[in-house]
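Course assignment 3, question 2. Fill in each field.
Student: A.L.
Task: Predict the tertiary structure for the chain below.
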Amino acid sequence: MARLSVVRFGMVAGLVAIAAAAVLLSNTLSPWWWFLAGPFALFAATGVYDLAQRKHSVLRNYPVLGHARFLLESVRPEMQQYFVERNFDGRPYDRSVRSIVYERAKGTAAEEPFGTERDMYAEGYEFLVPSLAPVPVPKSPPRVRVGGPDCARQYDMALLNVSAMSFGSLSSNAILALNQGAARGGFAHDTGEGGLSEYHLRGGGDLIWEIGTGYFGCRTADGGFDPGEFADKAAHDAVKCVSLKLSQGAKPGMGGVLPGSKVNAEIARVREVPVGQTVVSPPYHRVFSTPRELVRFVAKMRELSGGKPTGFKLCVGSRVQFLSVCKAMLAEEVTPDFIVVDGAEGGTGAAPLEFADHLGTPLTEGLHTVHNALVGAGLRDRIRIGASGKVATGADLVKRLIQGADYTNAARAMMFAVGCIQSQRCHTNKCPVGVATQDPRRGRALDVADKTERVRRYQQETVASAMRIMAAMGVSDPARLSPEQLRRRVDVRTVLSYAEWYDDWLAPRELLADPPAGWAADWAAADPDRFAG
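Answer field:
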């Protein structure tokens, strides 16, 4: 921990000393020393400025040397080919996404010259359908009312919110900036499964308190669920919703992992675990083992929280198993207030590569399954659907609403907004910009005031972009979006709308009345008393 500070300040002090010595020699021995004094004086001044400025975390931790990163970015797009992200199927994720997030967070223009960089004739290319009769952009974006008939304290959710990222995985300054940004922008901040910390509460932002299999922040001595502690913390005014994490897109079937190097005394206190020991959450919950028990536990959480909106998050796997949960909801006459669908393409710094690449359903298919299952079971009007998994731009947001979501959550894009440069050192505790570290000397590089405003600005501009896109499509209310307005290229000569791409859209209560051929076998196999299939 101390090594970084020694290197950082030692290097700048060394540059200052060399520059001063060269200036002295040029005045006493020979003017030729100015050829050395000039450059080192410039380097020294740059180093002092880097340590003092607050806008660039990488420069605060790596004065002078950190400018190499900005030099590489300045020669884009030639160098950007080395920074292309990939989708779950290996296609480029859109190399402009990160720059769009950065530019919106900083408040600079996001327009690019020379048109699209996407191959519009490539298989899988998607596009939204504009209207010849566009409508005015609404003055303020709509919000989504979350809370079914059993909810006593409904919550109006923004169209884009901070997705689940735990304190421990992220630094205290990163959590504080995200939360304060949410408070200023009027959107929600999911705590992740790592417990409810003072940094979640200090900023004043609306919280979705997530409870995972480790029950961090409300656990008994043997690692079980503590209803009394849960009720006490869920009563906090900042907690607007509570969410039960069933699985995570990037690692379904695995619990969370926090390396022991990150588990300092503060993290241990928040999570109620031993200091310095790697924390591995169980892959499954101890409080339920059947779909019926799951929905009963959701009802119990809602009751303990005082009637706040309660739901669960999952990465979709077997359709039969999700239909089993739907049957349990019908049998128990209990529904969650929301379900967050996490796509398999979501990111994490704590999962085996095989899990990230090969397990779980991508967000598009997951949304289609959950939305249609709830519609077919006659439950959709009681339950709101959130979408998380590489939601970064206004176009992403609109696509997810068309595919079945009511609102969206973003994790990676919010990390970009607080300064993440994708160094992929999250698990080492050596994040160069202070985002994913518990090293206080690295974390101090993240200026909370500056990054708070960037988070707010990014969310505001992205939602505004989504509203402009919808207006261009002739829609002012997201509820009027339809699958016909999103098209997908199947091959060079064939384009299908999402209404055609998926031919198994269900009508309300269709599963209860006469299940269609494509759903009948799975509906018949679904059992509310066991996770079969």
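Instructor remarks: Residues 2-71 form one domain. Residues 74-95 have pLDDT under 50 and may be disordered.
Grade: pending
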